[in-house]
Design a protein that fits this description.
Layout lengths: L25 H18 L3 H7 L6 H7 L8 E2 L2 E2 L3 H14 L1 H21 L2 H12 L5 E4 L15 E5 L2 E12 L6 E8 L2 E8 L5 E5 L11 E12 L11 H35 L1 E2 L2 E2 L4 H29 L5 H26 L10 H11 L6 H13 L6
Parallel strand pairs: 3-6
Antiparallel strand pairs: 1-2, 4-5, 5-9, 6-7, 8-9, 10-11
Helix pairs in contact: 1-4, 4-5, 4-7, 5-6, 5-7, 7-8, 7-9, 7-10, 8-9, 9-10, 9-11
Length: 396
């Protein structure tokens, strides 16, 4: 029965069931389509090989720079100054290709560039940011250490003054882009508290060593950074920020991109499983016609659409200046967890085919195991939210 004067609604789509697309502006849809085309033409034909060989071509940086995707949400210094939502949409499309590609862009823009843009001297900003926006100079972010991941406040890397220079000694671990970076943002203990430094990777005493034999984020350069009495001039030090406020502000930017990015990986897994189920015939009919398969697909679709709406809502709040770090923890905790569930469920629909690189599912599933723990583990984000809602600090 229809109400007089009202038309029947168009049937919803099988992927964007809630028509979230209608909530994007024309500019946001244009950015989405541009990044999606780049992923389709440049990433997808090569990503299985890159993943298998454990590499990500450095020239991808200049290609992303030409598209304006590096530091795209920053203003000035050659950066586009795009909205938080536009940046999130770009992250979603990049991660639909591979988490390693999105991580590359996130570390460059939301960690290394954001740190320099927010905390460095004007001289350092002019030195690094325009080249980084073009992808001509690459950055990495050195906070995590071998023994201090979730507790960076106890880091052992330290820096001491020596005349007008600083001498930095320590080790950083699991550093994305470390082996290909031109500048490393390094956080270290000093007599004045934790401070940040923009360290040229050509500095004497600086070295990067690749972490091999990874089974996750293989299409990503992951390194150990060693600073052995690494000497840098005074102007490399971030002049004002002290304590964990500096690095945590950067982490919040990167975590925000993950909220969107994981939905890209989840969408790729869901679309693959849906298409496979329609064409895989068992017992004389497509497996999409069986109740258990339909239940799996429906549950995947529910969480995909809910997670994308959550990302958009937090993005709009961020653009309006209303997003709190707790909101970002909420989004990161939920969306990574649900994306991983979607990837695992998609794997079951593909059966044995789900474990080969002929399909993207096992690659996304393995990658999301890393995304689950980097930029704050699920446990850390749970405790952040727990402290917020109860007023009790359960970290100690």
């Amino acid at each position: 029965m229809t109400i007089a004067g009202h038309k029947h609604a168009a049937p919803p789509g099988a992927v964007d069931l809630l028509n979230i697309d209608a909530l994007y502006s024309e500019e946001e849809r244009m950015i989405r389509d541009t990044v999606r085309a780049f992923v389709r033409d440049r990433v997808l034909p090569n990503i299985a090989e890159w993943f298998e060989e454990g590499l990500l071509p450095r020239e991808l940086g200049t290609e992303l720079g030409r598209l304006g995707l590096l530091g795209m949400h920053l203003h000035g210094y050659g950066c586009p100054g795009a909205s938080a939502v536009a940046y999130g949409i770009a992250c979603m499309e990049l991660e639909a290709g591979d988490s390693g590609v999105r991580s590359f862009a996130s570390v460059q823009g939301s960690l290394a560039m954001f740190a320099i843009h927010r905390w460095a001297s004007e001289e350092q900003k002019q030195l690094w940011l325009p080249r980084m926006a073009r992808g001509e100079a690459l950055g990495c972010f050195g906070l995590t250490e071998p023994d201090f991941g979730s507790n960076p406040g106890d880091m052992r890397t330290h820096a001491r003054r020596d005349g007008s220079d600083w001498i930095i000694t320590g080790t950083k671990m699991w550093i994305t882009n470390g082996g290909i970076a031109d500048v490393a943002v390094i956080w270290a203990q000093t007599d004045e508290g934790i401070r940040g430094f923009a360290v040229p990777t050509t500095a004497k005493g600086f070295s990067a060593h690749g972490i091999e034999r990874k089974l996750s984020l293989r299409a990503s350069v992951t390194s150990e950074l060693v600073l052995d009495n690494c000497r840098v001039p005074a102007e490399c030090a971030f002049p004002e920020v002290r304590g964990l406020r500096g690095p945590l502000a950067c982490l919040n930017e990167a975590r925000y991109g993950i909220i969107w990015g994981t939905m890209g990986a989840a969408r790729a897994c869901y679309e693959t499983a849906l298409d496979y189920a329609k064409h895989r015939v068992q017992f004389d009919r497509p497996i999409a016609g069986y109740q258990i398969t339909q239940e799996k697909l429906v549950n995947m679709l529910l969480e995909l659409n809910k997670g994308t709406l959550l990302a958009l809502h937090i993005g709009r709040m961020k653009d309006e200046g209303r997003a709190h770090p707790t909101h970002v923890s909420f989004g990161k905790l939920n969306n990574v967890r649900e994306a991983l569930k979607i990837a695992r469920e998609a794997r079951t629909i593909l059966g044995a085919n789900g474990v080969t690189l002929e399909y993207p599912v096992i690659r996304h599933m393995n990658n999301l195991e890393s995304v689950l723990t980097y930029e704050g583990t699920s446990e850390v984000h749970t405790l952040i939210l727990g402290q917020h809602i109860t007023g009790e600090n359960a970290f100690m």
